[in-house]
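Thread: "does anyone have the structure for this chain?"

Original post by V.I.:
We have the sequence but no experimental structure in hand. Need at least a predicted one for the grant figures.
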Amino acid sequence: MIGYSTTKKILFFACFFNTSLLFAQQDSLRLSLNKVFEIALENNREIKLSTAYLSRSEIVTADKKNNRLPNIGFSASAGYLTDVGVLGLGNLPDGFYAMPHFANTYALQASMMVYAGSRTNTEINITKLESSLAALSLQKNTQSIKLIVIGYYLDLYQLYQQKKVYEKSILLSKELLSKINDRYSEGIALKSDRIRNELLLSTFELALSKLLDHLQITNNNMLAALALPENAVIIPDDTLEIPVQLQRFLFQTSEEELKNMAMNGNLEIREAGVKIDIASKQLKVVRSYNYPEVSMFLSSALNRPYTFDIPAKDIYANNNSVGLKVNIPIGNLYLSKKKINIASKDISISRTSKELVEQNLNRDVKNNFIRCRESYNQLQTLYKQQELANENYRRITDNYMEQLALNTEVMDASNQKLDADLRVTQAKIEIIYTYYQLLKTLGEL
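Reply from O.Q.:
Generated one for you, tokens below.
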């Protein structure tokens, strides 16, 4: 009859074999972080949508510039004229006079706004600012996508590193268990020592099995974010290290300098500033409707028949005119007051929004800076703990083989070693992710 521990091993290796076979059947892609950025930005639908909005805003700006051009039109008409009835009032006999019954007109007209309170130029400037806003939105979405992808990528990196840690711990546990089995055969070791180490080994194997499942889920999430085929397996770069620039931020740049960098580079701050400019120019547009409008006009018309004489003459008559037209919108002087108040409120709201963004930004810069510094210091401590745990494990196992230590001490040392390795990996991931969060806050991601 197969023992309980043997059954667990069979189940584990079956699960591990199936997962490994699944990964083996898929296409492996070893990607660096920069390559992942490139794929994400190329395939992401939000980026494509933001790019489309930016392209549209540039077209709108070009369209608004057409308002500076003259408006030219041509018209033609044809119709039927009745005889003309006349009340002569002593000059002509009363009655109906014959008219040419076919009438047609050809007209060419042109007009151009000369002055409208700088409305046209202001509207063009607004569309330029809206185009800048669309460009900032594209950059914001780009940074957000990058940060999301970084999160998935670092999760994958952490899982692969944990996989190596568990595989190494399993290998060491198997080697120790083999030695214990030899000692047990020789009557030197206790059966309880062998059982405890088998339990420890099965615990590591079960943890590795769960980790492989989690690895596959994270890989699927990464594939969805990058819009890659479902059968691909992404393998992160093993050489991922803590950025050198992080140390410059921590040891050569003050918190105040980082805040100044954020105020100049953060995209939300720049976006809030553009919105204030747009609101100010919208107020200028509203006020421009209170100013007189001056336009030039030019027209040339060819009319048939000539009706300024009785009887009318069946000939074409050409009339040309050129001049200035002035329109004074008196009603707007009292109708536009509420619109001016609304535009003024929009400016106030935009300024308050920018102050709120600045307040939140100062907080985020400070918190991210503290987290980076805390994670970095913690990592240095964990490196030392890892070194001590490895040394302790080596000494305890050596002492156990020389019958100078108990098996429980070996298990404790093994768990401490595993925990130290995992904590180093976790801390390294946290500090890298916090660094990229700081870069996004500064507008440099």
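V.I.: this helps a lot. The CA atoms of residues 73 and 109 lie 5 Å apart.
O.Q.: and Residues 1-50+140-236 form one domain.
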